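User: Here's a structure from my thesis project, written as structure tokens. My advisor, Dr. K., wants to see whether a designed sequence matches the one we expressed. Can you design one independently, without my sequence as a hint?
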């Protein structure tokens, strides 16, 4: 059994490239070039230098002493929250901007929901002096004003998607339309391990620096590079893909993916794709997604904007189906409580996405001798208003 992509772009039954014919040339060019580019020593050198000096890597692997005492196990936090721009997303956008340059592209497009990927894309475009156009649903623009302002400060053009529900999927449609109309000079930066092949594999490889570092850091601290568990939250699945990547073939390392149950899996307001989803096609790949009987996408819900996605990347659909990873869904309330607990026990304010992963400790019991690595995907500054409204601090 392989957990890595095959030459046709599949993870078991999932993946592929289901795209309009007009996109074939763009996706084909990327599919033919990405591995060549990524293995070029000058690419590797530039990627690693930017991760170090611009992003601030390696991020610490921090032993959370008080949290460990509370849950009677050994908990390490992989501190992706300390990256420049506050989350793991920058690992991927740095990789893709270098890819775009190597492919001779002058113009960058992206879609964004909550605005986090839009900000990470606008950041690397400013860094490289490339034109940046971000498509965003009109409703999301209104909901996420601070991130819209960030993108504009960074020099990006934010174009509202006015069709459909005016949220992420409509922004994605607009970005695809743009790419069809500008096939030669434009690169489309997708923000998670989703989309047509080769995106899921390319993004997972850029994010795999997370588990590459965990292996080295855990060896230094514990004398072994493999923990008993690796835990990460899953929206599209990129931070989890990065944290799992170098452990996929290490069957002794148990993998746990935490999804957003929203107000409860059966409440009708949820984003627990692995439980509620069925096989179908979304954003150009075959995977699990939340859909009606006649194949219409069901609007997901989570208190966390980054987990509010109706699908999951094809790698995760495969990990779920083969049971290589255990998928657990936690509610808004469980996540918010766990987020506040990390603030009080460790002095770290987590992104609400990451708080979902932290809620695992109230759902699952670990052994006293277990070594548990939890990927803390981002910091909570962007979520302060949601925390304040929820807990009513004044
Ligand atoms: C976007 C985001 C996520 C969810 O995206 P994945 O692709 O599933 O990693 C999780 N955490 C943070 C902090 C994010 O910004």
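Assistant: Designed independently from the structure alone:
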């Amino acid at each position: 059994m392989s957990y890595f992509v095959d030459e046709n772009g599949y993870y078991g039954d999932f993946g592929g490239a289901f795209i309009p014919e007009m996109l074939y040339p763009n996706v084909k060019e990327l599919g033919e070039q990405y591995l060549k580019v990524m293995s070029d020593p000058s690419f590797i050198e530039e990627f690693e230098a930017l991760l170090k000096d611009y992003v601030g890597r390696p991020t610490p692997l921090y032993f959370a002493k008080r949290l460990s005492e509370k849950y009677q196990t050994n908990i390490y936090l992989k501190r992706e929250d300390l990256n420049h721009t506050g989350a793991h997303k920058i690992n991927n956008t740095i990789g893709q901007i270098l890819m775009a340059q190597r492919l001779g592209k002058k113009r960058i497009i992206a879609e964004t929901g909550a605005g986090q990927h839009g900000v990470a894309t606008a950041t690397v475009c400013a860094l490289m002096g490339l034109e940046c156009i971000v498509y965003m649903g009109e409703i999301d623009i209104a909901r996420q004003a601070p991130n819209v302002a960030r993108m504009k400060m960074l020099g990006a053009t934010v174009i509202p998607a006015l069709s459909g529900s005016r949220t992420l999927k409509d922004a994605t449609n607009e970005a695809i339309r743009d790419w069809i109309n500008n096939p030669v000079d434009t690169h489309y930066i997708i923000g998670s391990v989703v989309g047509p092949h080769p995106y899921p594999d390319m993004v997972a490889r850029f994010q795999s620096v997370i588990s590459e570092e965990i292996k080295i850091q855990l060896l230094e601290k514990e004398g072994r590079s493999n923990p008993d568990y690796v835990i990460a939250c899953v929206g599209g699945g990129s931070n989890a893909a990065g944290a799992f990547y170098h452990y996929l073939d290490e069957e002794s390392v148990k993998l746990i993916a935490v999804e957003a149950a929203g107000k409860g899996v059966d409440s009708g307001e949820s984003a627990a794709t692995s439980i509620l989803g069925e096989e179908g096609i979304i954003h150009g790949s075959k995977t699990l997604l939340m859909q009606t009987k006649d194949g219409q996408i069901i609007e997901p819900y989570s208190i966390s904007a980054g987990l509010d996605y109706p699908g999951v990347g094809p790698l995760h659909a495969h990990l779920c189906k083969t049971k290589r990873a255990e998928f657990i869904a936690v509610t808004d309330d469980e996540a918010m409580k766990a987020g506040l607990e990390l603030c009080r026990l460790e002095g770290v304010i987590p992104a609400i996405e990451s708080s979902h992963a932290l809620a695992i400790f109230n759902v699952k019991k670990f052994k006293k001798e277990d070594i548990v690595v939890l990927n803390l995907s981002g910091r909570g500054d962007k979520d302060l208003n949601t925390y304040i409204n929820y807990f009513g601090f004044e």
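When you compare it with your expressed construct, this may help: Residues 87, 89, 116, 192, 233-239, 306-307, 351, 353-354, 377-378 surround pyridoxal-5'-phosphate (CB under 6 Å).
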